[in-house]
């Protein structure tokens, strides 16, 4: 298990908390919470050690397209980058649904 | 499959059952109530700890759905997830007591105790069982076993206590998983690689034909919803834990030296002629009996020497206004899996009969007699026939009887001079409102043997032992157990095998004090949350969860 923290200078504040996913084998859960901070902070707990760089790349690519400003928590149980991207996209869609 | 219920996540299952737009999740992913015990062991937690509480309406009736997410740690019950279920059920109880009807529905998809939080899991599961039994006086508690994991371990004991069980054909129900039986009793007892055998034995079809499950439904959201609605409307109650005489009659006819297959068992189940099976008071004999800590203390506390009843593994006697009960070894017992003093089929059902008789005899009395459990159970019985017949029903029968006795006002006191392990402890010990233990190195108190726990959690025994250093609930000794706060007293100066006169006098005095303490307290299991150790460290997460559920229960 490894704990990772990332920050991104994002601009679009989220209005509601959302939660998607489960901490199942090969899967993860993603929680977005509205924040009063000026940047997006991610706290990640992952069961797969040594993938900090991969996380950095997946997250950078996602936030380049969708600069969501939020406090984000991720609990990951060995999801692939594709699944991570899918769950982040689902979380974003859930945000849109609530508007 | 179109509209499959099984394929939904735990949260979506809960939402699918309730009327559209009425569901409100309690203590959900945004409340930061994760298990504090997983990260220290290098395990990723989940924001809801694998249990979802959804309050809403089902066909316009108030309902609470408790859904276990099997994809997270196999749906195992730990301290936080367990406390979540208990706290919600106790709110349901309170509402029903106050005249607001609310129907609890439990979706079981669980391996039972979360082995990484072992002793917390056992405590929580006994507390869940206690709440279910209390609620059943008001409304039925409906259980669903959709399948994927199915229902195993201590939560299967819980399933037997629920009012009515609905399952799809994708479910399996058993106490000990086939892998654990293979680990404990050998591959000849149960081959865990034989999937056909596993499904034939534990699958819903066999279970519905033999009284373990009440209704088989197709895997569809609508069908599931309709089945639950009908079960509530008809106030279904299978009374599964009140069939001790039926099962004891069935067991009488069983030749344990011969194999028993599923077809034959179905026939035997149909052919049972139920006769009463009273258990006589233990008498003194001149025959030397196999030694055990449980037997030693039973005999010292009752004054009966070489005690014997008509069930070789169950001792019971009423002496000085107290009924004492112990499970003891019997090396020649016709059920080979209980020869070391394990809790098996006969033990669970026989104890249920003893305790239910005590309740009946004292029904009209103002002061109910104390029931003293002498606890020395190395485990439940691990056997193929035990699973086929439904050992979880046997253990549920005694657990339910103890809980009913306590709720009726009997002080139920556990005295622990020996082992207190797993399903054996749930059946004979954990429903007591005061627990007294000896501070003795020989005592093992846990959910599973090290070998099995390591196999199931895919760790080495060395890794497992490392984890016990960080998480007291993982440990196997009584001193770590004390840290959970559940004990009324840990007796320092008496050892398990030395029941000298002075020691016996001291234990009798402590039992009397515990009886008095129980009489002055409530008839539930809250004492465990209220000790100094519980409040300061042992049950901090439990108490936090109970507060959170209470705070969110009525907010709309």
From TrEMBL, chain A:
| GO-annotated cellular components | cytoplasm
Q: Where in the cell is it found?
A: Cytoplasm
Q: State the protein's name.
A: Malonate decarboxylase acyl carrier protein
Q: How is it modified after translation?
A: Covalently binds the prosthetic group of malonate decarboxylase.
The source organism is Pediococcus cellicola
Entry annotated with the keyword Transmembrane helix: no
Q: Which residues span the membrane?
A: none
Pfam families per UniProt: ACP
Alphabetized InterPro entries for the sequence = Mal_deCO2ase/Cit_lyase_ACP, Malonate_deCO2ase_dsu
The superkingdom listed in its UniProt entry is Bacteria
Q: What is its main location?
A: cytoplasm
Q: Which residues carry this modification: O-(phosphoribosyl dephospho-coenzyme A)serine?
A: 25
Keywords from the UniProt entry: Cytoplasm, Phosphoprotein
TrEMBL record, chain B:
- Mind listing the GO molecular function terms for this protein? acetyl-CoA carboxylase activity; carboxy-lyase activity
Coiled coil ranges: none
Q: Which InterPro entries match?
A: ClpP/crotonase-like_dom_sf, Malonate_beta, Malonate_gamma
Q: Which GO terms of type biological process are on file?
A: carbohydrate metabolic process; fatty acid biosynthetic process; malonyl-CoA biosynthetic process
- Protein name (Swiss-Prot/TrEMBL): Malonate decarboxylase, beta subunit
Say which species the protein is native to: Pediococcus cellicola
């Amino acid at each position: 298990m490894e704990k990772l923290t990332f920050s991104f200078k994002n601009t679009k504040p989220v209005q509601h908390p959302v939660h998607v996913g489960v901490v199942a084998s090969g899967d993860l859960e993603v929680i977005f919470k509205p924040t009063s901070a000026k940047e997006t902070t991610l706290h990640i707990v992952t069961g797969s050690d040594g993938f900090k760089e991969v996380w950095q790349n997946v997250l950078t690519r996602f936030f380049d397209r969708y600069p969501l400003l939020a406090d984000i928590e991720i609990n990951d149980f060995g999801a692939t980058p594709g699944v991570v991207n899918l769950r982040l996209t689902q979380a974003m869609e859930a945000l849109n649904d609530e508007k | 499959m179109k509209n499959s219920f099984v394929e939904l996540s735990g949260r979506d299952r809960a939402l699918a059952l309730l009327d559209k737009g009425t569901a409100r999740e309690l203590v959900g992913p945004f409340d930061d109530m994760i298990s504090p015990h997983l990260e220290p062991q290098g395990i990723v937690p989940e924001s809801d700890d694998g249990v979802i509480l959804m309050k809403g309406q089902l066909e316009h009736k108030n309902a609470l759905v408790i859904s276990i997410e099997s994809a997270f740690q196999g749906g195992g019950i730990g301290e936080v997830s367990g406390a979540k279920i208990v706290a919600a059920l106790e709110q349901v109880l309170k509402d029903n007591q106050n005249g607001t009807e609310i129907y609890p529905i439990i979706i079981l998809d669980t391996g039972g105790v979360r082995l990484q939080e072992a002793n917390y899991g056992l405590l929580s599961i006994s507390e869940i069982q206690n709440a279910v039994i209390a609620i059943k006086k008001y409304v039925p508690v409906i259980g669903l076993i959709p399948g994927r994991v199915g229902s195993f371990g201590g939560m299967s004991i819980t399933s037997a206590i629920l009012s009515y069980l609905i399952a799809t054909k994708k479910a399996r129900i058993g106490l000990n998983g086939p892998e654990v039986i293979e680990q404990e009793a050998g591959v000849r007892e149960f081959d865990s690689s034989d999937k056909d055998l596993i499904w034939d034995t534990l699958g819903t079809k066999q279970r519905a034909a033999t009284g373990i499950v009440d209704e088989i439904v197709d895997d569809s959201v609508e069908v599931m919803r309709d089945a639950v609605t009908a079960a509530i409307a008809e106030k279904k109650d299978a009374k599964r834990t009140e069939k001790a005489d039926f099962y004891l009659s069935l067991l009488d006819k069983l030749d344990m030296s011969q194999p028993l297959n599923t077809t034959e068992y179905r026939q035997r189940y149909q052919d049972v002629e139920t006769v009463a099976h009273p258990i006589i008071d233990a008498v003194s004999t001149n025959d030397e009996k196999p030694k055990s800590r449980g037997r030693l203390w039973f005999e010292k506390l009752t004054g009966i020497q070489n005690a014997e009843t008509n069930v070789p593994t169950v001792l019971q006697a009423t002496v000085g206004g107290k009924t004492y009960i112990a499970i003891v070894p019997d090396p020649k017992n016709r059920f080979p899996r209980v020869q070391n003093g394990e809790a098996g089929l006969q033990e669970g059902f026989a104890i249920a009969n003893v305790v239910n008789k005590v309740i009946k005899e004292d029904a009209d009395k103002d002061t109910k007699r104390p029931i003293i459990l002498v606890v020395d159970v190395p485990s439940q019985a691990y056997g193929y026939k035990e699973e086929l017949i439904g050992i979880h029903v046997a253990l549920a029968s005694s657990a339910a009887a103890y809980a009913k006795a306590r709720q009726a006002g009997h002080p139920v006191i556990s005295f622990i001079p020996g082992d207190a392990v797993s399903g054996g402890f749930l059946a004979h010990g954990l429903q007591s409102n005061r627990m007294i233990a000896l501070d003795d190195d020989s005592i093992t108190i846990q959910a599973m043997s090290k070998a099995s726990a390591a196999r199931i959690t895919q760790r080495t025994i060395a890794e497992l032992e490392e984890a016990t250093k960080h998480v007291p609930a993982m440990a196997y000794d009584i001193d770590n157990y004390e840290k959970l706060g559940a004990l009324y007293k840990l007796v320092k100066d008496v050892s398990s095998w030395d029941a000298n006169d002075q020691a016996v006098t001291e234990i009798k005095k402590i039992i009397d004090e515990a009886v008095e303490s129980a009489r002055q307290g409530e008839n539930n299991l809250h004492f465990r949350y209220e000790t100094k150790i519980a409040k300061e460290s042992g049950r901090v997460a439990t108490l936090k969860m109970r507060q959170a559920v209470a705070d969110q229960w009525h907010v709309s």
